[in-house]
Amino acid sequence: MDNELLVSDVEGLSDLSEDQVVELFHYRQEFKRTLTGFGSFATSYSFISVTTGIFTMFGYVMATGGPAGIWVWPIAALGQLMVAFLYSDIAGRIPISGYSYQWITRIANPAVGWFAGWLGFAYFMLVVAAVNAGLSPVIAVIFGISPSTRNLIVIGVVLIILQFLINAFNTRIASLFNNFGVFTELIGLVLLGVLLLIVGLSHGHPVSTLFQHPNVKGAFFPAFIASFLFPLYTIVGFETAANMAEETHNAHRTVPKTVILSVVSAGIVGMFFLIAAVMGMPSLHGVLKSATPLPYIVDSNLGSTIGTVFLVVVAISIFVCGLVCMMSGARLVYAMSRDNRFFMSTTFRYVSKRFDTPFPALVLLTAIGIVVTLFSNSLAILVGTTAVMPTLTYLLTILAYFVAVRRGNLPDSLGGFSLGRWATPVGILAVLWLVIGLLILTVPKEFHAIDLWSLGIFLIGGLIYLFGFRKTTESTL
């Protein structure tokens, strides 16, 4: 952009109006601010989607770490909460769309900021397809469709198109879908968890069940560590509220709270339901044999009717998760494009005045999601790769935060959330956690195929930057 925004320009300006905050960063307000506090929370919580993660990964956890594997969840939730605290601190200082791309570019290094944007875009290219690949079998069961490969692909494509239509023609409508999905998930998981706990305890299942592990070859610890793929895939996307900041009322105050609340809520609800599901297992052997472990547990304890209701709740939650993934991805494309740091920027920076949505960016995410659905035959690879991308992005962002603090480039809070003197210890804990997370996702030989995919994405991004965007990132925004 022609006008540079100096970090010093944003200090001590807590009384600015919402539109003036955007103008402060040399942009103009293009979106209507339709998201309330709950709507902001819902975007982050839906992206995390405890239901999606547990339904997709429960069988994997039982096969690797067994019932004891569920205890990776609170460890990961606490680690991600440290990340969420730092993200909330930055979101209160720079409340505009583009999250890590914008933040790193402005407070540390434009080239690293572009690379964070590339990692985010690569993540969204894969995660839309990954989420709907997990939903397709559920839809097939609910409607009695044969779960053949061809049918599942067709269902996945139809789901992506439906999510596009909802997203493209009105953000408020998409937000209403999202709010309903969050309400359904929270109520559904809590009620179902209570029922499973009651039945499990009435059947005399001992509490020691929660600490059992399968008879795996070799030591238990490596299998337990492998279970971390589950929360590292699931407890991500809490920064979505920050990515929707320009569509949120009083964003510099609202977004930091909703980012933190989404992680806390997901951590508590997820742990409660995992305990309930394990206590409700008829047998570990039966769960490991079942192609759909959670429906098997629900059907065995509560009957097929409640099992069907549970599947409907699962379907709604996963669908809304995919909806929000596409919504957030489109905002990142828009944010990079308005800075001329994305392909065909003139096209993808466009915001429809009629629908108040980044229509071309949504079309792009939809097209890519369909292509990935058609040609990817491994949900495991998609899941693993979509765990690596955000973890690395989080690490880059927090390191950039410390660089900005050291250089004195960190803007003052605009009157919202600030960690103050707690930023350093919280940030150190977050960095340690993220480094451990990356090691977990890359070192075990079971994840080496994921490493190759991730490495390919990094190399492609490096080439695109060198030959396409190096000159555009030679100055700050």
From TrEMBL:
InterPro entries cross-referenced by the UniProt entry: AA/rel_permease1 (IPR002293)
Annotated keywords: Membrane, Transmembrane, Transmembrane helix, Transport
Highest taxon in the source lineage: Bacteria
Keyword Disulfide bond: no
Transmembrane residue ranges: 35-58, 70-91, 112-145, 151-169, 176-199, 219-238, 259-282, 302-334, 355-375, 381-405, 426-444, 450-469
Intracellular or extracellular location(s): Membrane
Gene Ontology, cellular component aspect: membrane
Membrane topology type: Multi-pass membrane protein
The keyword Transport is annotated on this UniProt entry: yes
Molecular-function GO terms, alphabetical: transmembrane transporter activity
Name of protein: Amino acid permease
Species assigned in the record: Sulfobacillus benefaciens
Species classification: Bacteria, Bacillati, Bacillota, Clostridia, Eubacteriales
